């Protein structure tokens, strides 16, 4: 769909940022790309800057698997996007996926119904429904549902189906016979699931892959017509009573590309728009685009953005980075000689997990010893298992208040956390000296840097704001930086206190809830912070701390369907493992790509870390008469 637009969205920012490009267009629509290649030749674009490769899916797979690619940007189906994610899991190639959608089109009782009807025509029958952001789920408030359906049926009678090169035609042919058969199969299945199918009495061409515009009435929310992307001219209607019910129905999908809200009550519309799990929301309009505004999805609609400043960031990399390029290896502290003597005091303080705001013992009852640098016993920590992680994810899911809280509130809590942490300075320095065998000044440097990092993100929490775009169509487009949701954080062994906080704090500042796996070799330094968290007003479930073997923890977290992202700061094998396992729901994976991180570097904090902990939402708001 839209072969020239898709090409421009990818090629233009890539070239503008100084990259060379190899384009592989869709096998059904290569002619536009060939014409564009001719244009590049005519204007004298240097040889090799833009290259074109045509072919089917096998060609695309060979291209994805080839060496030498630094970035892949893909637009297409979710199934192919998952395949690309799997094929690139063993590399550090950057990836942008703009995939399928099942966008809700919400109409409230106070909406301009005539305008909403035209909006539906544009949302689902533009390009015969072969649009990734098509508004294929019509959510109608019960009081106006019957009236809206009647108006829609009357409008559908006027739609014209035929040659798409005729500018008087509304709906053209589907792209192929394969797609036509898919649309027929899914509509038949929807009817078998209880939906009532209605089609206007209009003529179709005798030849070609044409399908009449279809309205599926009284569709069950679990029906194939409401859950799966059809990529055809099928609109499925459902009803709701209250705004909260509309929101629940709208978010009841694995996708999150776009949505549309229709209401003359701007307060109601702007209350609902930020709550939709979608990267783009149109208020009283649909299918609005501009090169200055980002476009992209949440969930299984992919990640990354096309257009806008956020789209340009996908094609560049920072000059200064905290990643050193050195290969990271996990420390083998078990290989040291040990004694069974406790240091300092014979009173053994129990190191528990921290789940849902409470200290908890490991579900399996398994503990392991932690050794100091001199071989003495520092204490024991629990070994987390699948159930511990399940409990932590459930607790994080219930703490949505943290994600909905204002940046100012998060800033105040993080400032308080930093103040409380500074009171434990001496205790933390002593712990670092015992665990690492480092000198006093080295321990002091790590603690000081850790406290500074707390204040850094506390200051950022209410300042990492979005922007306001003003496209030329008479609209305002505020861009909201929203948290990913629930993130799993895997910490390294290097600088166990500083790295732990450097990974946790940007996630918290952006509004995420976290399940943190601390350093495997030195987990006690993270356990020492539990009391600080308990006394710093952090909501229960905002931070959940579980110690355990990183490989085992990644196995569960990366495959967890209720996790929205995972940061892996570990070995290259651990990062690859997380990428492979996260393919199931396309959760975002970020980390050190198996490299040693200089945690004292200025690049180990700041805007880029907050960007990785958030996702942007563009809300299109028309104004004027």
What is the tally of beta strands?
26
Going by CATH, what is the homologous superfamily of the largest domain? Aldehyde Dehydrogenase, Chain A, domain 1
Low-confidence stretches: none
- The domain tally reads 3
Number of helices: 22
Mean pLDDT: 93
> N- to C-terminal separation?
33 Å
| Beta-strand residue fraction | 15-25%
Give me the CATH fold name of the largest domain.
Answer: Aldehyde Dehydrogenase, Chain A, domain 1
Q: Provide the structure class.
A: alpha/beta
Strands of the widest sheet, in order across it, are: 7-8-9-6-5-10-11-26-19-18
CATH class of the largest domain: Alpha Beta
CATH architecture of the largest domain: 3-Layer(aba) Sandwich
Share of helical residues: 25-40%
Biggest sheet layout: 10 strands, mixed
Rg of Cα set: 27 Å
Coarse shape: globular
């Amino acid at each position: 769909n839209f072969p020239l637009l898709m090409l421009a969205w990818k090629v233009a920012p890539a070239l503008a940022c100084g990259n060379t490009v190899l384009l592989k267009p869709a096998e059904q629509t290569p002619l536009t790309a060939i014409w564009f290649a001719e244009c590049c030749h005519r204007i004298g674009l240097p040889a090799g800057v833009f290259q074109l490769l045509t072919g089917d899916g096998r060609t695309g797979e060979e291209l994805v698997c080839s060496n030498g690619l630094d970035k892949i940007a893909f637009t297409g189906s979710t199934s192919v996007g998952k395949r690309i994610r799997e094929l690139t899991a063993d590399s550090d190639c950057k990836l942008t996926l703009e995939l399928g959608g099942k966008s809700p089109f919400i109409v409230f009782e106070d909406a301009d119904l005539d305008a909403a009807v035209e909006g539906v025509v544009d949302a689902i029958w533009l390009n015969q429904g072969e649009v990734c952001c098509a508004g294929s789920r019509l959510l109608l408030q019960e009081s106006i549902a019957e009236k809206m359906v009647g108006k829609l049926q009357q409008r559908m009678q006027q739609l014209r189906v035929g040659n798409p090169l005729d500018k008087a035609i509304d709906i053209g042919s589907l792209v192929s016979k394969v797609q036509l058969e898919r649309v027929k199969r899914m509509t038949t299945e929807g009817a078998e699931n209880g939906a009532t199918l209605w089609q206007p009495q209009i003529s179709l061409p005798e030849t070609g892959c044409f399908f009449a515009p279809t309205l599926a009435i009284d569709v069950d929310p679990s029906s194939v017509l409401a859950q799966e992307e059809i990529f055809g001219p099928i609109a499925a209607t459902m009803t709701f009573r209250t705004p909260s019910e509309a929101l629940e129905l709208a978010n009841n999908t694995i996708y999150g590309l776009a949505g549309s809200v229709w209401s003359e009550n701007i307060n109601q519309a702007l209350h609902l728009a930020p709550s939709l799990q979608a990267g783009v929301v149109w208020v009283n309009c649909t299918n609005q685009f501009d090169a200055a505004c980002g476009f992209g999805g949440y969930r299984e609609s992919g990640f990354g953005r096309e257009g806008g400043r956020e789209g340009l960031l996908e094609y560049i990399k920072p000059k200064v980075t905290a990643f050193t390029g050195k290969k990271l290896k996990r420390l083998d502290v078990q290989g040291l000689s040990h004694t069974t003597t406790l240091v300092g005091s014979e009173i053994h303080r129990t190191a528990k997990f921290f789940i849902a705001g409470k200290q908890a013992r490991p579900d399996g009852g398994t503990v392991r010893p932690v050794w100091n640098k001199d071989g003495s016993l520092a204490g024991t920590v629990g070994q987390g298992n699948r159930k511990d992680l399940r409990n932590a994810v459930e607790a994080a899911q219930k703490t949505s208040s943290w994600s909905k809280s204002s940046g100012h509130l998060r800033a105040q809590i993080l400032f308080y956390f930093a103040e409380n942490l500074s009171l434990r300075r001496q205790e933390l320095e002593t712990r670092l000296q015992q665990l690492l065998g480092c000198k006093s000044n080295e321990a002091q440097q790590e603690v000081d840097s850790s406290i500074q990092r707390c204040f850094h993100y506390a200051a950022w929490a209410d300042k990492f704001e979005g922007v306001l775009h003003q496209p030329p169509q008479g609209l305002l487009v505020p861009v909201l930086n929203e948290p990913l949701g629930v993130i799993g954080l895997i910490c390294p062994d290097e600088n166990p206190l500083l790295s732990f906080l450097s990974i946790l704090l940007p996630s918290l500042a952006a509004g995420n809830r976290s399940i943190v796996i601390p350093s495997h070799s030195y987990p006690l330094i993270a356990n020492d912070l539990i009391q600080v968290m308990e006394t710093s007003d952090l909501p229960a479930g905002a931070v959940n701390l579980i110690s355990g073997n990183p490989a085992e923890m990644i196995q569960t977290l990366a495959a967890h369907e209720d996790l929205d992202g995972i940061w892996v700061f570990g070995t290259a094998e651990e990062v690859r493992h997380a990428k492979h396992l996260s393919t199931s729901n396309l959760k975002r994976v970020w980390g050190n790509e198996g490299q040693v991180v200089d945690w004292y570097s200025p690049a180990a904090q700041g805007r880029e870390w907050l960007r990785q902990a958030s996702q942007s939402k563009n809300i299109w708001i028309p104004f004027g008469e």
